[in-house]
């Protein structure tokens, strides 16, 4: 990465990010005038913690010990604008009534298929467990909708190096023939800041149109 791009990335995440709004319907979303990247994952995968680590703010995205707390499409952006991060409702396990879960799933479906400014979805997978059937379901939808996505392993610090290497290889095989999957897998740890700079670089590229 060039020095200029390095500085662009640093500035994007050094400046304060703000919560824009939470959307319970696609109609509530802002105009599709800015590039967006989204984060999807099982309800207990550490999505909010990863977003907070990315922007260097401890409480921008709400974290909870109760999986499934994110029930909206929550939008965040740097104060100077230029790009938005969308925190999607967690899928899989959620302590909520079935009708509410079905409503979230419908919202996710509509968002993924109807957002032309969505450049990439980061599908978060717990490194301790690898891809699960619920992850495959979301990837199938992303493949069908031709929405580019990239797998991000979370909690990578919980595994020894050889264990992480095995999960990386397993995940690579899992996505190998998926048409919309980016081939590179990013291993991260919100607690240890592992992989955070790499993920920041990826997001900054979309803001710069690269």
Task: Give an overview of the whole structure.
This protein is α/β, with parallel strands linked by helices. It has one domain: P-loop containing nucleotide triphosphate hydrolases (Rossmann fold, 3-Layer(aba) Sandwich). It contains 6 helices and 7 strands, in the order H-E-E-H-E-E-H-E-H-E-H-E-H. The chain has helices at residues 3-14, 47-55, 98-113, 133-145, 161-175, 196-207, and strands at residues 17-23, 35-41, 73-78, 83-87, 118-126, 149-154, 186-187. It has a 7-stranded mixed beta sheet with strand order 1-3-4-2-5-6-7, with helices on both faces. A hairpin with a 4-residue loop joins strand 3 (73-78) and strand 4. Helix 1 (3-14) packs across helix 6 (196-207). The radius of gyration is 16 Å and the shape is globular. It starts with a helix and ends with a helix. The mean pLDDT is 89.
